[in-house]
Write a structure and sequence with these properties.
Helix content of chain A: over 70%
Largest sheet of chain B: none
Number of domains of chain B: 3
Radius of gyration of chain B: 20 Å
Largest sheet of chain A: none
Structural class of chain B: mainly alpha
Order of helices and strands of chain A: HHHHHHH
Number of helices of chain A: 7
Oligomer: heterodimer
Radius of gyration of chain A: 19 Å
Number of domains of chain A: 2
Helix content of chain B: over 70%
Strand content of chain A: under 5%
Number of helices of chain B: 7
Number of strands of chain B: 0
Distance between the termini of chain A: 31 Å
């Protein structure tokens, strides 16, 4: 299991191209769809926690999922797995290919990768929207979060905190009517 | 000693940059260029360009690279460990609470609010990545093709990335 964690996150780390959210679809595919280590709901919850913690999103998620599966050791293996591919590729480039940038082929490959990453992330949005049991009126949160980040450039952490508070307020106002998710 | 100093600088950067990859870059720039003059701005922007084109989170990549530039392999290890460690420890603490409190009514209610909001954040990321990168006929073609094979064939994202890299080399 520990080696599995290392292997899966090394694979994710090796294909995290184009930064930031690009790994969300990869983790979703490997950890939720293929291996069913965590379920769809928890995946989104972990994404929220990783987003509100300092550090790179990909690393935070790997640490968290590693911990969920196998405690501290699991988190160490998953994190090392996630870091290893980039660490060694950077080291090799720094040592031998200082002129990496002049390699036109890499640049052209990235011209193809970037729009594909855009498609991957967009697809992830649809997949999460379809699979997680977000109740209809809660989609106001989705629309608000989208607009506040895109147009007002509000800090995502503020949005997560505000939505958590609103979630609890809704519970208090509606009382304990259990409309299970 | 420079190795320990590198570790501490990057640990500080790792501890205070909430919001992932790109949020760390201004911190790295301030510490490495402005405060300590380890690298010039030109060297740093070259490093950023390469870090963007290398697998892995950009902040980690640039930490590894900067560490190597300043103090060789040991430097790269120190910088990488430094930038990863604070969030690693914090996540472990949070995860242990998470496991304990996940079933609490209030926590569940909070996540009922958080989940749709995170979907909105992801949608915002998708939107901004799309409008910056899907800009001409070729990129629109790659975008639609990628989305299509994901949607219809349920293909592994890794395969999609490989296909798109090959397409990029052919088309551009």
């Amino acid at each position: 299991m520990l080696l599995d964690l290392f292997y899966v996150f090394a694979k994710i780390g090796a294909f995290t191209l184009g930064g930031g959210y690009a790994m969300v679809p990869l983790i979703q595919s490997e950890v939720v769809d293929k291996r069913k280590w965590i379920d769809k709901e928890e995946f989104v919850d972990i994404l929220a926690v990783a987003q509100s913690t300092p550090g790179a999103l990909a690393i935070n998620m790997s640490t968290f999922i590693g911990y969920r599966k196998k405690g501290i050791l699991g988190s160490i293996f998953a994190t090392l797995g996630c870091v290893a591919p980039s660490f060694f590729s950077i080291l090799i480039i720094a040592m031998f290919f200082a002129k990496f940038m002049s390699y036109k082929v890499v640049e052209r490959a990235f011209c193809g990768i970037r729009p594909a990453v855009a498609a991957l992330i967009t697809f992830s949005v649809f997949k999460i929207a379809k699979s997680s049991s977000i109740k209809s009126y809660y989609y106001i949160f989705t629309a608000a979060a989208f607009s506040l980040v895109t147009f007002v450039k509000l800090d995502p952490i503020l949005i997560i905190i505000a939505s958590a508070i609103l979630g609890i307020l809704i519970l208090k106002i509606r009382g304990d009517k259990d409309d299970n998710n | 000693m420079i190795i320990i100093k590198l570790f501490l600088i990057f640990a500080k950067i790792g501890a205070f940059s909430i919001g992932g990859g790109y949020a760390m870059l201004p911190f790295i720039q301030r510490e490495i260029i402005d405060n300590n003059h380890y690298l010039s701005l030109k060297e740093f922007s070259d490093i950023l360009a390469i870090s963007q084109m290398t697998p892995g989170p950009i902040a980690i990549n640039s930490a590894t690279f900067v560490g190597y530039k300043i103090a060789g392999v040991l430097g790269s290890i120190a910088a990488t460990l430094g930038i990863v460690l604070p969030s690693f420890l914090m996540i472990i603490i949070i995860a242990s609470f998470f496991v304990k409190f996940y079933d609490k009514k209030e926590v569940k209610a909070a996540f009922l609010g958080i989940r749709p909001a995170v979907l909105g954040l992801l949608a915002a990321a998708a939107y901004s990545v799309t409008i910056t990168n899907v800009i001409d006929i070729k990129s629109i073609f790659v975008f639609i093709l990628s989305f299509g094979i994901l949607f219809i064939k349920r293909m592994d994202p890794i395969i999609v990335l490989i296909i798109s890299a090959v397409l990029g080399i052919i088309l551009y």
